[in-house]
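Researcher: Let's try something more involved. This one mixes different molecule types, so please make sure each is placed in the same coordinate frame as the others.
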Amino acid sequence: MSKALPKRSENYSEWYNELVKRADLAEHSAVKGCMVIKPYGYAIWEKMQRALDDMFKATGHQNAYFPLFVPKSFLEKEEEHAEGFAKECAVVTHYRLKSNPDGKGLVVDPDAKLEEELIVRPTSEAVIWNTYKGWIQSWRDLPILINQWANVVRWEMRTRLFLRTTEFLWQEGHTAHATSEEAIEETEKMLGVYATFAEDWMALPVLKGLKSANERFAGAVETYCIEAMMQDGKALQSGTSHFLGQNFAKSFDVKFVNKDNQPEYAWATSWGLSTRMMGALVMAHSDDNGLVLPPKLAPIQTVIVPIYRSEEDLAKITKRINPIVERLKSLGVSVKFDADDKYKPGYKFAEYELRGVPVRLAIGMRDLENGTVEVARRDTLSKETIPLDGIESKIVALLDEIQANIYQKALAFREANTFQIDSWDDFKVQIEKGGFIEAHWDGTSETEERIKTETKATIRLIPLETTEESGACVYSGEPSKQRVVFARSY
Amino acid sequence: MSKALPKRSENYSEWYNELVKRADLAEHSAVKGCMVIKPYGYAIWEKMQRALDDMFKATGHQNAYFPLFVPKSFLEKEEEHAEGFAKECAVVTHYRLKSNPDGKGLVVDPDAKLEEELIVRPTSEAVIWNTYKGWIQSWRDLPILINQWANVVRWEMRTRLFLRTTEFLWQEGHTAHATSEEAIEETEKMLGVYATFAEDWMALPVLKGLKSANERFAGAVETYCIEAMMQDGKALQSGTSHFLGQNFAKSFDVKFVNKDNQPEYAWATSWGLSTRMMGALVMAHSDDNGLVLPPKLAPIQTVIVPIYRSEEDLAKITKRINPIVERLKSLGVSVKFDADDKYKPGYKFAEYELRGVPVRLAIGMRDLENGTVEVARRDTLSKETIPLDGIESKIVALLDEIQANIYQKALAFREANTFQIDSWDDFKVQIEKGGFIEAHWDGTSETEERIKTETKATIRLIPLETTEESGACVYSGEPSKQRVVFARSY
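Model: All components are placed in one shared frame. Result:
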């Protein structure tokens, strides 16, 4: 380990950037705005993928794969969608390089200009709905419930590892339905899947709600989202599910014959969750010592570090530990016995702390004599010495306890940093301190824009589960029926 | 089902194209040269991915993710590599569209021209070795054993679903080592993994060998490959593993301090296997009725079709079948009970035959009375009626038997279509009939080129496991030490 991490309290932003790099999650590549996801980071992403993919399949979805390129004319078809993505896309204009006639190297071959430019997909509604046109003729062909795991590109000027990168990895679900009701039900169901994933796997409490018109996905009728609070009190949008109405079906002329034998445009949803969630995972739980990973997503859930002077001592420890390692594996715990003698135990402890391994066991010769082991929890940084006998079931229980504790800690933090605010002066003061503000809003885009301009706060969501409560807009004083959630955000 | 498939004997090529589409594996997209992999096809690819990924991890590799884009200057660094890929690559030149000032739609914004063009990766050696430069300082940092699952783009003028598409999916392993020996060992180990995957999972017998210099990967010192025979006697390259020497380390200046404290360039390998294998799977085993899938890669391994007249009958069958379905699932068999009453049993039989479901059970009221069920094997198209009691273990055994039988059939076919040829006249006659030709070759690129020009046959590989045998080159008559394998290929 080199020098300590920056402290969250001193420079949250720098703490995040450094932690992502030092914990070997990701790094900037030489390609502007694109990241390299390193093996340790990718192993976490694989666990996220597996969990989500299982949930998608359990809810009746299948995976498929659609082209990386979107012809420009496809993007143009849905007007709002085009406007939303045209300004930040990678454009392929040629299909060949040739040797530089004037010297060394390669140049673009002007004879290999494409008749129509291809856009590297920023999202796949256009290319997928153009495909669905061939798949949907009758109500019998519906619903179509498809998900795609893919890379997408949105040209960003200011990038941050995981949170905002030009290329990122995600899944995008694209479904087609015979009725509006069914499509809305799907939109809400997938929001539920995201919320379950965030809370049960990432240990990340989320609010569920609707976006205001200003914050909607380009081309959506309604955008649902989950929002989580980071440790600096800012919000991070952690998954969106869109009800697209018949917008894309109309743009791509996707009609089906309904049960009454009438032609009708299909109803659509799309929903996505990306490597951005890796950023949320880091920002929500980690501390000044490094990552704190929820056990369900930790590539290594338990590490065992032997403390020894001689090879004979190591052999004795190994003999005692090996059956424990095997039993832990058979219980589904991913465990590493780190007998690498290139590094000292103290160095290893710091490394595993930095990498967020939930449970660390240390065992020396005295432990071996006493039949004990030292167990350190990453979430609380507490240690205790307990008997080796029956350690396996204790670790399994401890991992569950840590998973629950990380969630509870994040929930308590969010609750302590959520404020009901009813005056504009209080709003301006509170937003500087951070946190979520529940306030009344008059429902107009104008007010929303003014609040954003004056405070950098946006409406994160209009909560789905809320109590109606009449009040006056915190900014305009106009009447309002429910509070919405304001915050600054990533 | 619409009209029958074309017959292999009449038009093998058309049979393949139609089968891929009708069995819902893939279709052409509106984006030139790019395919849509449909859910059924993607489910097979997912099974391939899982099997390979498990083998990569078992051999010590980790997954990571590197950028989609390769700056032009990176591609230029390794000269042969650049030459090999420059002529068929998608070039990103701009990062923004804007509203057309002269009318409707979007146009490329000339103000958003990139300073340096970006190439959509045709393969990732350049971008990865540029990254490894930052990761490798000492022998302690080696080996680096990384794999990436990704999409790549090679601009193809003539495309065929799975076999040759502009965009395809693959995995690419990229490893760095301290010694040449270790890198060669890795190259051979991964060739072995591919051969095991092809034979044990795809039921596809393969030959292992080296490519001739003409057929080597651009930038490799040595290319190892596995080659399989399709039912028309042509060869299909099914995975390659490259020993890259220090070529990329030198191009990207990746040096490490070795154990003797001397700076040295790192040694590299790369190895890849793509969605092309989906094409091999179809072409190697399927018949005029449709797909024949090896059970280990079949999304549905067993389908159960009830034959009934009334709802009561169906209820009785369902009651008897449900526990069987549960037991099969618990034994790891993916099973579907198809009680959909939109289609008749005959239609379903044909559909599942088209889709290559290995085992089909049909059960009617008489079967229920007799305690029997009709079992149909997809590979042999044979049927027999057997007792329902104990059906589960019989199905498990039958799936193993089918897996083995499909492999044996393909092996017997290859053996029957492999010929040792010693005269040029015989060579020319045999190559028209198809199959693999084992012949002596004088080892020169000139002879290889002439044989290719005259017969369209290439050296598929120089076998790894072979007996030395001195002879005379089948074309030039010059001396030769071993036979090599010639064939026409995909």
